[in-house]
Design a protein that fits this description.
The protein is α/β, with parallel strands linked by helices and about 400 residues long. Helices cover about 40% and strands about 15% of the residues. The protein folds into two domains: about 140 residues, Aspartate Aminotransferase, domain 1; about 240 residues, 3-Layer(aba) Sandwich (Aspartate Aminotransferase, domain 2). The relative contact order is 0.16.
Length: about 400
């Protein structure tokens, strides 16, 4: 496989021309120039209401539909109308759980994890008001994994939903969602997957995931603050409409997009798939758009693994450092999101020290508060998290390591 040509990759992201080292990518990635250009162009040339008969409105409608098609291709949706767009993953999760509320029967069991971002927990918790029973699939504090054996103890014939993350935004671990789907479906339940921490690093394939709902945010995947919820067609059709009374339950996906989508951000997001396909082509990949996107992500994963191992090997060599997650890059199952704590030090102090060098990392619980509490790390101010993207370089990681040396070697 050809390696990524980092100068051309970085040139696609104008912000990377600055001196800042962006290593808070799991918080939000940098934006592609082409995405910003498309948003700008949409606003200045086709900012009219959709669905009218005049030419400009027709053109705007075509753009918004084309954007949905592009997102459907990017995630491998079987049908375009399975793609629901919205403001944020959190907002889409509240829309989903609000739509599920009338169908909840007392005693229905819903399993959430204590490793997820709260976006995939809070909405489910609120279903308790309709009598749902919430069970927590807890992280194994030794392996720092969600163990399937622990899930098996929670699953019953009354399990209606399991909500879990594809990749943890703190631990960096990838969960076997297709295997979970198999177990949940065998009991007649459904699976909802938060793909926010996965989508910047691997090509999402909603069909292969075998989930029933899959959600992620574009601002972590080189785009704007905007998000997508994919749902299986027959499931989405079974939900009530959350839109006006005259927009019935058969009107997909509009019934779950009250007030409509953001047109310009939709159009902008179509630039992400375009970029991924161009990177794939530049690496010599041929074939369908998804095959070329796959080649891009294969190269991203290879590069990101090297960057992750560069930092992990340094952290492993420091006796006072505890890596919160797998301490090695293992068989493609670790995202380059690396959390750690340093004995006797507040995580905030380390990050504030690094801030002074123009390197953006951060500390805290990252809204995976239940995980940080389960690991008893809240009194340390949570973890220090370094999160990489494919555009980061070995030199940037070396600069970070140079900076960390002053804090992590102090004993
Ligand atoms: C894993 C994960 N899920 C969900 C979210 C929430 O996404 P949004 O800000 O789009 O609601 C985040 C944001 O950090 C996240 O990291």
């Amino acid at each position: 496989m050809k390696p990524l040509h980092l100068p051309s990759i970085r040139a696609a992201f104008p912000a990377l021309a600055s001196d800042c080292v962006y290593l808070d990518n799991a918080g939000g990635s940098q934006v592609l120039r082409r995405v910003a250009d498309r948003i700008h162009d949409y606003l200045l040339t086709t900012s009219v209401q959709l669905g009218a008969s005049y030419a400009q409105s027709q053109r705007a409608s075509e753009r918004v539909l084309a954007a949905r098609r592009a997102v459907a291709e990017m995630i491998n949706a079987a049908h375009e109308d399975e793609v629901v767009m919205g403001a944020a993953t959190t907002a889409l999760m509240f829309i989903l759980t609000q739509a599920l509320l009338p169908g909840i029967k007392p005693g229905d069991e819903i399993i959430v994890t204590n490793t997820d971002h709260e976006a995939n927990i809070g909405g489910w918790m609120r279903l308790q008001q309709a009598g749902a029973v919430i069970k927590i699939w807890e992280v194994n504090c030794d392996s720092l994994m969600l163990e399937l054996a622990d899930l098996d103890k929670l699953l019953t014939a009354r399990t209606t939903w399991v909500a879990m993350t594809h990749a943890s935004n703190v631990l960096g671990s990838v969960n076997p969602v297709a295997e979970v789907a198999r177990r949940v479906h065998a009991l007649g339940g459904r699976l909802c997957v938060d793909g926010v921490a996965y989508a910047p690093h691997r090509l999402v394939d909603v069909q292969a995931s075998d989930a029933d709902i899959y959600v992620f945010s574009f601002y972590k995947v080189f785009g704007p603050h905007y998000a997508v919820l994919w749902g299986r067609r027959e499931l989405l059709l079974s939900l009530p409409s959350l839109n006006h009374y005259f927009i019935g339950p058969e009107v997909l996906p509009y019934k779950l997009q009250p007030g409509n989508v953001n047109f310009e951000l939709s159009w902008g997001c179509a630039g992400i798939g375009e970029y991924l396909q161009e990177v794939g082509s530049s690496l010599g990949a041929l074939g369908s758009g998804r095959q070329r996107m796959q080649a891009a992500f294969d190269a991203f994963a290879h590069h990101e693994d090297q960057l992750a191992e560069q930092l992990l090997s340094y952290l492993r060599s420091k006796p006072g450092v505890r890596i919160i997650g797998h301490d090695r890059v293992t068989d493609g199952n670790r995202m380059p999101t690396i959390s750690f704590v340093v004995a006797g030090q507040q995580s905030e102090a380390i990050v504030r020290h690094v801030d002074k060098s123009g390197i953006g990392i951060r500390f805290g619980d990252f809204y995976a508060r239940r995980l940080i509490e389960a690991l008893d790390l809240q009194t340390q101010g949570g973890v220090v998290r370094v999160s990489m993207a494919h555009y980061n370089t070995a030199e940037e990681i070396a600069r970070l390591i140079g900076c960390l040396e002053a804090c992590v070697s102090r004993r």
